[in-house]
Structures are given as C-alpha cells and as structure tokens.
Specification:
The structure is a homodimer.
Chain A lengths: L40 H10 L1 E5 L4 E3 L7 E7 L1 E7 L5 E8 L3 E2 L10 E4 L3 E7 H10 L1 H27 L2 H18 L11 E4 L4 H8 L3 H13 L4 E4 L2 E4 L2 H8 L8
Antiparallel strand pairs in A: 1-8, 2-7, 3-6, 3-8, 4-5, 4-7, 9-11, 10-11
The structure holds a DNA duplex.
DNA sequence: CGACACTTTGACTGTAGTCAATGTAAGTGG
DNA sequence: CCACTTACATTGACTACAGTCAAAGTGTCG
C-alpha cells in the first residue's frame, strides 16, 4: 500500500565495518537501558563481537509474518510498529516499539506479525544462532529478556482492555497519555512557564487509527474535540501540547484497580 | 456483581495432607503437558515436595490486581478467566486459561489483572519463593515458562486484532473456532455419523461478551444468526454442534498472512 | 411450585464507520 | 517563483452496526 519504500535488511549497509569497532557497546546510547544492561563488561565483549549496527529508512520492512526470524535486535533509535492484518486488509497495530526495546522471538518459531520501521530506525542486530548461544551462556540475559516479555504481555493485555472496552475519546486520550509518559521517562519535563508537556506524534493518523482500532476520521474528530475542549493544543500536525495531564488522565479512564 | 461465591485460597483445604503423597506428580493428569514436562524424574521429585493440590469452586477469586502474588500454579482441571476492568465497571477478559496452563508472574511484580475460577478448578500450587528457587536451579523449567509466555503474548496479540478489527459475527465465530480447536487438541473427534464437532461453552454469555468486547445481547443475536444460517446447531444453551468447520472458518476471518 | 440466574428477542438509539469533498503542507519541475 | 503533484489531515452528510433499555422466555435448584 501507499508506495512506501521497501528495504530489506540484506540491502542495508553496516555503519562501519566490524573490525574498526573494537568496543562499540561502551559508547552505545542504550547500553544500560537495553537487554545488554544485564551484562557485565566482560560479557558485553562477547555481545559486541556478534553485533552489527544498521540504519533503516522509515518504511523499511524489518520482518514479516510467517518468516522464520534470522536475527534479533535492539532498537537503538527510532520507532517500530508491529502489526497483524486480516485477509481483506483490515489492520491492527499490536505493538509500538521504541528504543531500547528488543525485537525478535527467542526459541525459534515464527514471528506471527509484521514489523516495520515507522521512522528512521537504528538497530543493533545479532544473528539468531549466535545470540541464542549467548542466552544459554549468560542466564541473566535470558532472565532480562523474560522479564521484558512479561512486561510486553502486560502491555498487550492493557491494550486489549482499551480495544475491547474504551470509547473513541478514551482511546485517543490514552494514546496521548502513553506518549506523554514516555516523554517524561526520557527526561522531558513540563515547560517551565506554562507547565505544559509537549509531545510529538511518532506515527500518522492512519497508524494511530490502526493502533486504537478506529478509523482515520474518528481519530481526527476526537483530536479536534480534545482541542476544542482545550485539553490539548496543536502546535502543528505532529506536535501537541498538554497543559494539564490530569485532565487528560480523567478522560482516558485508566484501568482501575479491580473492585475486589 | 452477581453474588458469586468468593473463596480465597487461604480458605481452601488441601485435598490430602502432604506427607501421604510421596509422588503425586507421577500420577498427575498434566504431568507431561504442564511446565513440569520439562523436568526429569529426579527434578520432578523436588517439585513434588513443594507442590500442593487445591480444589476451588466456580467463582473463586484466585488473585486480584495490585496483589503481590504469593504463589504460582498449574491448572490441573477447569477454566480460569483473567480480566481487567475500568473504574466504571466495564470489563475485558484478557485471557482464558485451561489445563495445563500456568498461572502467576515470575520475577516479582504484581499481576496487573484479576484471576477467577469460571468452573470448578483444580490447581497444583507452588509457594512463590520456593518455585523461584527451582527456576534458578532448573534452567529448563525457566525456558519452558519463557516459551509459554511468548505463546501467550502471541495469543494476546491475535486477540488484539480480533478486538480492534473484527465484526461481531467474526468475533463470535472465532471464539467458537477456538473452542473447537481446543476440543480437537484434546482428542475429541468429529462425530462418525454426521461429521459434526461438538463443543461445550465453558463460560456464560456475559463472559463471552467480556472476552469479545461485545454486549450480552449482541453475542446472543450473533449466535442466533449463526444458528439460522445453519452454521451451528444448539444442542442446549451450553452445547453447540458445528457440522462444517470450514464454513465457520470462512466467517471467522482468520488473520491472514501479511500481504507482503 | 416459586425464585433466581441466565438467555433471547424486540424496539429504539447513538457512536463510530463510510463516502465524499475540502484543506494543508512538503516536495518537484518547468 | 509558482503551478502541480502527492501524501496526509480535517470536516461534513449520511448510514449502519452494535449498544441500550425493556420485556419475555428458559432452565435449574431448593
């Protein structure tokens, strides 16, 4: 669809030849936040030996359903969407991955979904077989990956609640809040003067719609509505200011503690 | 809601005192299908030592959100639903667990959802700290649990596609198909004469609605519609015959292979 | 039998989807 | 520099699918 550029990994050049990067990990932007954070300096040397940095333009297909994955990767920068679709083309985004998330499914089996770079993406890739050997050698690595998978499962279930039970406004508000929280995690603080948080939408309206189980038009209308209620301000198409997070939270209807 | 019986684990008696069960695992119905399948006979002896069989009536609360889980468990028999809800009471079932599924979240952290026995349930429980020690000692156990978690994540994402993008009929058809496939896995074969598969709905219409992101009425209407289209036959409220699985599959709109 | 929980059916409503037109912004080439 | 293209986004009018509210039906248990 929509004539986007298709770039497979095979066509991507390494940023630098391996031999000239004796200890790339040491200066890695996601050294401590990625799964590698579980490793000691000496263990990291092994990882460094098998890793390869690649840069993919927006729109690149990283892997697709039914494909036996041949590699694993850390997202160093950029945004990756994971999606599934029905035969008639209806699509659902089942995960939005940012740095320092991990891509790939351990222990064989196919990735039953489709992964695509939404922005330009920088990956730190590992060949499948070598990485699985590391998992075996360094139990902490496996455990870290396991914990991340548990967190992803929790997020997926939280999203099931959104998809199955939230209204359109609630969905959009939850999505904006997700981005605002992520911005907060990365050290972005509210503007000193206005107290407003500023977020940048990493994906198009079409992708937001596919993430929230809505149509483009409904997403657009709900954003307009939030704007006219002065819950948000549009700086431009992709940039939004949120003057009062709690107001947005009230609308988003966060999953409550169970009433038991 | 609906005045169901509330029974916490503390109130449940063990089926037999521990000392009189020298090797309960040897005769366990789910010995090979549960996570224990990853263990050797000698390893299993350790597991046997810390496990405890409990039986919970339908409606029992197994654990709830924000509770630090104090145990793990295999489901030996029965059906458990995992659900999340919004403050105003809207509910979404995020997982239906059957035997020999595993309950509980490794590596600490709270279970961010609510687990309830839908039918009478028989559990094989392990105290949290002792079980985590086993995970450390027997890497195969951890790996098996990891693989199961990956499968659960895949199922959750498949369900996200259903919740976000399928129509009411498609949702109901997919649910029936899920049960039919499960029945098949358990050795139930189509009726010799008619070729029909017979399934028993393990949950009420209300729970089906909460699983599919619909209302009770819509579920009921779609079942009626499938009945009048002769895709299914109602034996009684809870028992359904499916004369032709492929017809149901066509309606369910299985997630297609990606078009790439 | 009556009580209660669950299910089905009917009439009506409303939210989000569809179809179509217009608006906006960035990029291309004459 | 300005028309033109292209992709993306917004807005409007209308529709339809699923939700709501209400009543009646079914089945089970004491």
């Amino acid at each position: 669809m929509c004539g986007r550029q298709v770039v497979t990994l095979a066509t991507i050049h390494e940023i630098k030849p391996k031999s000239s990067q004796p200890n790339r990990c040491a200066t890695c932007a996601v050294r401590h936040r990625a799964v590698c954070g579980a490793l000691s300096e000496t263990e990291l040397a092994h990882v460094n030996g098998i890793s390869r940095r690649t840069r993919l333009p927006a729109g690149s297909i990283i892997f697709h359903a039914q494909e036996e994955a041949s590699f694993f990767a850390n997202i160093v920068s950029g945004v990756v969407k994971l999606s599934k679709s029905l035969v008639d083309g209806r699509q659902q985004i089942v995960g939005l991955q940012f740095s320092p998330d991990f891509l790939g499914r351990a222990y064989g089996g196919e990735n039953p979904y489709f992964a695509e770079a939404v922005t330009e993406v920088e990956l730190c890739q590992f060949p499948k077989n070598k990485f699985e050997k590391l998992l075996f050698e360094f139990p902490m690595l496996e455990q870290t990956l396991f914990e991340r998978t548990l967190n992803e499962l929790d997020s997926a279930r939280e999203w099931m609640l959104l998809l199955g039970r939230k209204t359109a406004v609630e969905k959009v508000a939850t999505f904006l809040l997700l981005l605002a929280r992520r911005a907060g995690d990365q050290g972005c603080v509210p503007d000193a003067d206005s107290g407003a948080i500023r977020i940048v939408l990493p994906i198009t309206r079409a992708d937001i719609a596919d993430y929230l189980g809505l149509t483009i038009e409904t997403v657009s209308r709900q954003i307009t509505r939030l704007k006219s209620r002065e819950i948000i301000q549009m700086i431009n198409n992709r940039t939004i200011a949120i003057p009062d997070l709690t107001a947005l939270e009230a609308i988003s209807n966060q999953s409550g503690s169970d009433t038991y």
